[in-house]
Design goal:
Blueprint: H1 27-40, H2 49-63, E1 69-76, E2 79-85, H3 88-100, H4 104-111, E3 115-117, H5 129-135, E4 140-148, E5 151-160, H6 168-222, H7 226-240, H8 244-264
Antiparallel strand pairs: 1-2, 1-5, 3-4, 4-5
């Protein structure tokens, strides 16, 4: 069993704040630099959020020595969910820890620290999770918190089938990759939320216009006031157990069909 990747007595993650450069020796750092560069070229405008997260997870596998698979977990309202996984076994492993509410991903996100183990089957920090995952043939994990402004909004989970797959160097590389990866993930989240809001506003504007047209039709037929027309439309909605906008659209479509029929008769 290994303890979380830490540096010194303060418990800060290894490599926190470090920036890899082309001066770093070895092919591992070259792969790290290449993966970080690829993060900056992800097209948030053309790709969906799951597509972007999948790319981030795949780049993590490429960047971190010893990795066999990776997943990205996002937390919201104290609920964790693996959005993407690069392999089926990753999703299976993460599902186990969500069911048990115990595991390296949950610990990493909650404590905002890197979690590492090279012998999950005998891991005392997660006594229920570890043995179950070990029986699946997954023995090593490196869980890295996704941080923004010092707050955790998820974790990046790197797994390997072999024992002791992630040494100190792998943990440091993982932490160096996790920082820009968190930025890429958060930017993708913000963009998706903005698109969802824009779509909602557009739908609301469309519904409002349809309702106004329906109110105009009711008033022209009955000579009632705006408030009375709205009350009638709302009563129709409640009677039919159908949303107001849908009732309004049905009313407008019917009026259009009648108008067309009159002109073609």
């Amino acid at each position: 069993m290994e303890s979380p990747a830490e540096s010194g007595s303060a418990g800060e993650p290894v490599g926190h704040g470090d920036t890899p450069t082309t001066d770093d020796a070895g092919p591992e750092h070259a792969q790290l630099i290449s993966s970080i560069a690829a993060l900056s070229h992800l097209s948030t405008g053309r790709l969906t959020l799951p597509d972007i997260l999948t790319e981030v997870a795949c780049l993590a596998v490429q960047a971190i020595p010893g990795a066999d698979g990776a997943g990205l977990t996002l937390t919201e309202n104290d609920r964790s969910d693996t959005i993407v996984a690069t392999a089926a076994f990753v999703r299976e492993v993460d599902s186990i820890q969500y069911d048990l509410k115990e595991g390296p991903c949950i610990s990493a996100a909650a404590q905002r620290l890197t979690m590492r183990s090279g012998s999950l089957g005998g891991e005392q920090r997660w006594p229920r999770f570890g043995p179950r995952v070990g029986r699946l043939g997954v023995h090593s994990v490196l869980s890295l918190p996704l941080l923004a402004a010092g707050e955790s909004f998820g974790a990046m989970n790197i797994y390997a089938h072999g024992r002791d797959a992630f040494d100190d160097n792998a943990a440091r590389i993982g932490e160096l990759f996790a920082s820009p990866a968190a930025i890429a993930v958060q930017n993708a989240q913000i963009l998706q939320q903005a698109k969802r809001l824009a779509a909602g506003l557009q739908a609301a504007a469309t519904n409002r216009a349809m309702i106004d047209q329906a109110l105009g039709i009711i008033r022209s037929r009955s000579g009632c006031s705006s408030d009375e027309a709205y009350d009638r439309l709302r009563t129709m909605s409640q009677t039919r157990n159908t949303k107001l906008a849908i009732v309004a659209k049905t009313l407008v479509d019917e009026a259009v069909r009648r108008a067309i029929a009159r002109h073609t008769a």
